[in-house]
């Protein structure tokens, strides 16, 4: 028996062993809270109802949430508890339910979303992913997920192999994002500027990798068009365990401006940009083995 939820296709039974992502068949959650550090159209004024899942199927060597990567931190959650937490976040005023690194937890999330919606969950559901996804897994969320925030991390397969052990990252992610756009279109906002439906592609500009950012932007423009909403992020912060150049330094102002200028020169109209002061470790929230909601 294999797990086929993501492109890793681990040859294991998740009820008996953990795969590359470190996850068993029971999801662990390391934080569930209102979160104010997403894009303004996601966090709004009342916060995004964010659920941080433990474990990851990509395991980037520079990850800000590296403590969650191996899947050990966090509290095991039943489907019922997960559905309850979604409804509690809604009652606290959340603009949306924001599922962070949800990929390995597909079955529990689908069951919990159905249960929560039957019991009154009405705010948009946001799937916040590294995009190393199979098209089939994304297709199965049709009708359950309203918003997708897919990262598009690398184009060059040597970078993808070196930073995430995923040589096939780029074509895989592009196909997954294509399915997201087919389902819900490009991101739409309500009269208050809050996202209600659709896709916005995120790209974190990495130090020393502006050439790859250009290739990614070219590919998005070519495949999805320049109406595709983007978040071009500058918040890269080196973590102590990642000493590999160029990831051991921050992005420079010049690098980010070069990337942003290129993006605008291609004709992208809906681009959220950031100041370099976004590169602060306080953007990483506290995680724990006990969820207080
Ligand atoms: S979700 Fe986890 S166990 Fe399943 S294929 Fe992906 S990495 Fe492997």
How far the N terminus sits from the C terminus, by CA atoms, comes to 35 Å
Question: What would you give as the CATH superfamily?
Answer: Aldolase class I
CATH class: Alpha Beta
CATH architecture: Alpha-Beta Barrel
CATH names the topology as TIM Barrel
Give the H and E element order: EHEEHEHEHEHHEEEHEHE
Mean pLDDT metric: 96
Q: Which percent range fits the helix content? A: 25-40%
Could you walk me through the main structural features you see in this protein, from its secondary elements to its overall organization?
The model has no long low-confidence stretch (mean pLDDT about 95). Strands 3-1-2-4-5-6-8-7 form an eight-stranded mixed sheet. Strands 9-10-11 form a three-stranded parallel sheet, with helices on one face. The chain is of the alpha/beta class and about 290 residues long. The protein is globular. It has helices spanning about 40-45, 80-90, 105-120, 135-140, 155-165, 170-185, 210-225, 255-265; strands at about 30-35, 50-55, 75, 95-100, 125-130, 145-150, 190, 195-200, 200-205, 230-235, 270. Helix 2 packs across helix 3 (about 105-120) and helix 7 runs parallel beside helix 8. It has a single domain (about 30-285), classed as TIM Barrel (Alpha-Beta Barrel). Helices cover about 30% and strands about 15% of the residues. Bound molecules: iron/sulfur cluster (SF4). Iron/sulfur cluster binds near residues 8, 9, 10 and 19.
């Amino acid at each position: 028996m294999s797990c086929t939820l993501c492109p890793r296709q681990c040859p294991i039974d998740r009820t008996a062993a953990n795969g590359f992502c470190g996850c068993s068949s029971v999801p662990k959650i390391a934080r569930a809270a209102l979160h104010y550090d997403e894009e303004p159209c996601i966090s709004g004024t009342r916060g995004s109802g964010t659920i941080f899942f433990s474990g990851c199927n990509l395991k980037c060597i520079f990850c800000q949430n590296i403590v969650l990567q191996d899947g050990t931190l966090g509290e095991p959650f039943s489907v019922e508890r997960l559905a309850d937490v979604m409804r509690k976040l809604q009652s606290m005023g959340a603009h949306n339910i924001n599922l962070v690194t949800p990929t390995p937890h597909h079955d529990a999330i689908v069951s919990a979303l159905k249960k929560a919606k039957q019991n009154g969950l009405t705010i948009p559901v946001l799937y916040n992913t590294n995009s190393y996804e199979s098209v089939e897994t994304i297709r199965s969320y049709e009708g359950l997920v309203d918003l997708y925030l897919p990262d598009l991390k690398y184009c060059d397969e040597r970078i993808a192999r070196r930073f995430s052990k995923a040589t096939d990252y780029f074509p895989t992610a592009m196909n997954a994002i294509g399915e997201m756009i087919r389902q819900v279109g490009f991101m739409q906002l309500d009269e208050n500027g809050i996202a209600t439906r659709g896709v916005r592609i995120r790209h974190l500009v990495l130090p020393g990798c502006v050439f790859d950012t250009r290739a990614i932007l070219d590919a998005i423009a070519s495949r999805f068009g320049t109406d595709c909403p983007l978040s071009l992020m500058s918040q890269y912060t080196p973590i102590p365990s990642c000493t590999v150049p160029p990831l051991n330094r921050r992005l420079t102002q010049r690098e980010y401006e070069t990337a942003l200028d290129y993006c605008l020169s291609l004709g992208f109209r809906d681009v959220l940009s950031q100041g370099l002061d976004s590169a602060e470790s306080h953007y990483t929230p506290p995680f724990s083995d006990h969820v207080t909601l």
